[in-house]
């Protein structure tokens, strides 16, 4: 039965990749390559969740610094691009909010896992 489910998942994944290729969308490589990967416990090479979260935090931090620099330039009179500064500030704010939502979901998921009976 595990082979049937694994085969169905692999077929669905191949179909999704084919549709994404037709739409010219690049999908990240999933860590799931079939039942043999799960049975051996090995994972494919790629970024871990912690690395991706660190990259996301760094990206949000860079956006915040860029927004701060643009706002400081407008405040000091070095730039007249108030609209651009406000847009950058709002983008940084939305990115931070999204990052906090992801963090909250991860914390909730970990708490749910801790509560699972063994």
Strand fraction: under 5%
- On the 0 to 100 scale, the average pLDDT is 79
Number of helices: 4
Shape: flat
Derived from helix and strand composition plus strand pairing, the structural class reads mainly alpha
Low-pLDDT regions: 34-43
Please give the oligomerization state of what you see. Answer: single chain
* Count of separate structural domains: 2
Radius of gyration: 21 Å
- Helix percentage: over 70%
The tally of strands reads 0
How would a textbook summarize the main sheet? none
Element order: H for helix, E for strand = HHHH
Distance between the termini: 24 Å
Task: Give a quick set of tags describing it.
2 domains, flat, about 120 residues, 4 helices
In brief, what are we looking at here?
The protein is mainly alpha-helical and 118 residues long.
Topology:
Layout: H1 2-22, H2 35-40, H3 49-76, H4 82-115
Characterization of this structure:
The protein is mostly helical. It has two domains: 1-46, no CATH class; 47-118. It contains four helices and no strands. It has helices spanning 2-22, 35-40, 49-76, 82-115. The radius of gyration is 21 Å and the shape is flat. The model is unreliable at 34-43 (pLDDT under 50).
């Amino acid at each position: 039965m595990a082979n049937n489910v694994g085969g169905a998942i692999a077929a669905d994944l191949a179909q999704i990749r084919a549709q994404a290729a037709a739409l010219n969308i690049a999908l990240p490589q999933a860590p799931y390559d079939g039942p043999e990967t799960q049975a051996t416990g090995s994972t494919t090479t790629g970024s871990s969740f912690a690395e991706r979260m660190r990259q996301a935090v760094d990206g949000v931090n860079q956006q915040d610094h860029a927004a701060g620099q643009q706002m400081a330039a407008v405040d000091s009179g070095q730039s007249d691009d108030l609209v651009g500064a406000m847009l950058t500030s709002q983008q940084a704010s939305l990115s931070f909010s999204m990052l906090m939502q992801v963090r909250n979901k991860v914390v909730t998921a970990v708490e749910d896992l801790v509560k699972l009976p063994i």
